Amino acid sequence: MEINSADVIRSPGTPLDRRGRSATSGAADSARSVTELFTEHHLALVRLAVLMVGDRATAEDVVQDAFEQLHRRWRTLRQQSSALDYARSAVLNGCRSVLRRRLVARRNEGRIARPAPYGTDATVAFEQRTVLIDAFRSLPRRQREVVALRYYLDMSVADTAATLRISEGAVRSNASRGLDALARALPKEP
Amino acid sequence: MPPIEDLLSDEFKRVADTVQPGQLRPLQVPVPGRRWHRYLLPVATAAAVIAVAVAAVLVAGPKPGPASAPAAIPRYYLTFTYVTDQHVQGMSVTEAVIGDSATGRITGTVKIVTHDFPAPVTVAAAPDDRSFIIGTYEPDPKGTQATDYQEYRFLRLPISADGKPGHLTELPAYPVPMYAFVEGIALSPDGTLLAVSSMYSLGRQNGLPAGKVEVINLVTGKVRIWTAATQQGHYYEPGPPSWADGDRMIAFTWQRSESLTNDNMTMEGVRLLDTDAPGDNLADSRMIFSRMAVRGTIQSVLITPDGRDVLVATSRDVPSGGNRGTVIAQIAEVPTAASGPVRIVHTVTARYTANTKGYLNETSQVLSLDPTGRYALVNCIQFGWLDLDLGRFTPLPPYSFLSAVWGAW
What we know:
The structure holds two protein chains of two kinds. By secondary structure, chain A is mainly alpha-helical.
């Protein structure tokens, strides 16, 4: 069975250095540094992405893409000590893209085939669903990100501002509005 | 009621804890090359040549030193084509096609006659770069009833220096029941040991299924067999073998059935068999990495001759299970050591269609490595060869996309 070559969108050969052959010390160093960062923070970043997008498979893909970006740009990072901030920002950017794509898909749901439910992640997704988490995921993007960084990662206002590249005042106002919205979403006590 | 901040922190922690460390894939990175490298390389090469020439003159007088030829791709590769309009005594014809690796030019073909169509052929390249071992079922084996029994036999195909095929020579018969299926074969680097992965007793009437890896000594005819027995309601299937560490280690994929009566298989990962170790239990082989090591579904693997890496062909569709979007075939290099990033060597993306999805598993294959482990014959939606050092893909005939091609070099 064959298909038209027009169906093949791209076929990039990725330049690559292998250990002991054409490896350059710079590339090897960046691979080592990114690997160390990955080992240390992978789980936390996947958990952050799960909070944002709601399923593990997508969260893993987002974090994987973030580390690929980080690896490609390692040598151009102004401060390599800020790589974790870069990774967090890349993860949040990736989550934004996923959520944007889902929004577009939902808008066009009537016109295109509905995707199958997330197989093995269905149980996990169910476990994650509560009024509070649903309300969190329905917050506006900026409020959602600020709330996650402040109350999941326990980041300071200054660090949150630096990661999201917004002012500290914007962090405070988005956190306040987000918390108000979440409090309103909770069922009233009798 | 506690403050909203505390409620939120507890909820975040509960959701985050649904992700546990053992569930996650390792890092995969395409290691970028540098543009200056291409300019630096000629300069470095010229400098090295001058240095060697000067050293040779100084140390050994005017005699030229031994030429250090760059590693080269194997001269010829072999693939199969299924000829629908040809029959010999009512039986189907499969052609083994020999091609020049540098140009893709076909240098010769050999007809293989089988009952089945397409023929269940396997192939391994010999290290001499001048012969191949082809495996297939014999239509009417001597002294047996073709209706009840077939032998899987191996034939040596020599080729001349200009790529012309010689006569097929049958190696000692190797009985595999007709209800078994040979997954793949591989020759050891010295060309004396043939590793065969197979799945026995696929018919329910033939007893419990059992995966086997067998090593045939082509010089003495001696055979050693490792068998994976059924365990706790599952059977196990080893994928095509590949050799590492000389003629000692054999790597293969490892699939587990859903049940003894269900053919649905789950890819578990890649195993390494130490043929120097005692015993005949295939399950005693070591799992060197799980399916979680790479994105997508592992379709086939080849271990590099030095045993340091495993080349893995994978496929996946994005979004997963969405019946739309994109299908991705990828070749990655996974270190056999426990740590280290997975290197993405080659990626091809295609629009999701019934064809692309349906044929992705057959067209995402690592087929054969050269003896140095640098050049790989692959099918990554398109057939061709990969320079693993540079991540450069060169297509070979047949040039069609999503066409399942089997071969070796």
